[in-house]
Amino acid sequence: MNSTEATDRLLEAAEELFYAHGVQAVGMDAVRERSGVSLKRLYQCFPAKNDLVEAYLLRRDERWRKSLREFVHARGDDPLAVFDWLKNWFAEPGFRGCAFINSFGEFGEPAPGIAAAIRRHKAEVRAYLHDLVPGGGLADQLFSLVEGATVLAAITGDPGEATTARGAAKVLLAAQG
Amino acid sequence: MNSTEATDRLLEAAEELFYAHGVQAVGMDAVRERSGVSLKRLYQCFPAKNDLVEAYLLRRDERWRKSLREFVHARGDDPLAVFDWLKNWFAEPGFRGCAFINSFGEFGEPAPGIAAAIRRHKAEVRAYLHDLVPGGGLADQLFSLVEGATVLAAITGDPGEATTARGAAKVLLAAQG
DNA sequence: GGACGCGGAGAACGTACGTTCTCCAGTTCT
DNA sequence: AGAACTGGAGAACGTACGTTCTCCGCGTCC
């Protein structure tokens, strides 16, 4: 097995496990078992668990935003489509909220790289919304709705939080014109 | 030292430590040191760490909602006052987001009592908003804004998230009439 | 064919921490 | 005063886990 393939497998396993159970609850041994990569190789690819966590977050950020971007783009970049995408996400089996918010809660004082990954993800999403809804603070307001809906859907388990937020977003968009 | 006083001190110490550093990062020994209560007594009051965590969450829920309720009531129960209160909270030194959201992220599969405390807190806040803004789904929309602002303020460190959410809330309230 | 090096399996090590146990000083009751 | 009890300080125990080490088989090169 090639080293880049090992890295892929590790990241795949890490994402499944970390997202489902939380980072702290998953041991390196579980990642090894799930990925089929030996511990020695694991530590060659990622010298410490923090490095793996950081890579997991970066990868998740990119995939998550790509999925959102493509979905919304296919709907003519309608800002409301963001909330339709959210609803689908919330309804996925295994949905457990935002990986970045969860990680933020998990680490009281996150390692610098992890804290940066979390902040960067939120900054990127915010920037994306600003592209979608230029001008004014409207994008920031929508962002707040997105985050709130995600958190509440995770805790209550109700994908309908997306619909609630969508309703609010519609009013805000109409008000701005 | 009386047993109820020990309980008080333990909960006080637990809240300070758990909220500041996260539950998992704080050992029972740290709670003992901070509270000045002996380990033996600690385990008499709370047979296991989970019990202490649960009590911490219940106490925090009550105090947090009481503070919000009183502030908003002093402003004539104006729904927008909720966001003013949030802004003050976000600006407090040591603000680290919502204890319940953080705990939710911290535990992949929380112990039943802890999961229940988290869900109960959110249900109580939602119910409070429904009292404040009766009828329709408006209260739920405001709730989403509240949660979103809290999460974003925690991650970005910017209390201005409350102002953003307040602006959105104002539009929503005006739209409903 | 034999020496060499890479990679895997899993043991081993150190540490942290939840929980329990031991011991002892001070207090109360007879 | 002496016995019994209470509560505190901190050692001890078991476990989990991040990380490193050991050993061995297998393919590669002289």
Largest interface, C-beta closer than 8 angstroms, per-chain residues: A-B, 44 and 44 residues
Helical stretch count of chain A?
Answer: 9
Which band does the percent of strand residues of chain A land in? Answer: under 5%
Using only C-alpha atoms, the radius of gyration of chain A works out to 18 Å
Structural class call of chain A reads: mainly alpha
Q: How would you classify the quaternary structure?
A: homodimer
Mean pLDDT of chain A: 96
Q: What helical percentage do the residues of chain A reach?
A: over 70%
Sequence stretches where pLDDT stays below 50 over 5 or more residues of chain A: none
SSE arrangement of chain A, N to C: HHHHHHHHH
Terminal CA distance of chain A reads 56 Å
Can you tell me the overall shape of chain A? elongated
Number of strands of chain A: 0
Strand count, sense and barrel status of the largest sheet of chain A are:
none
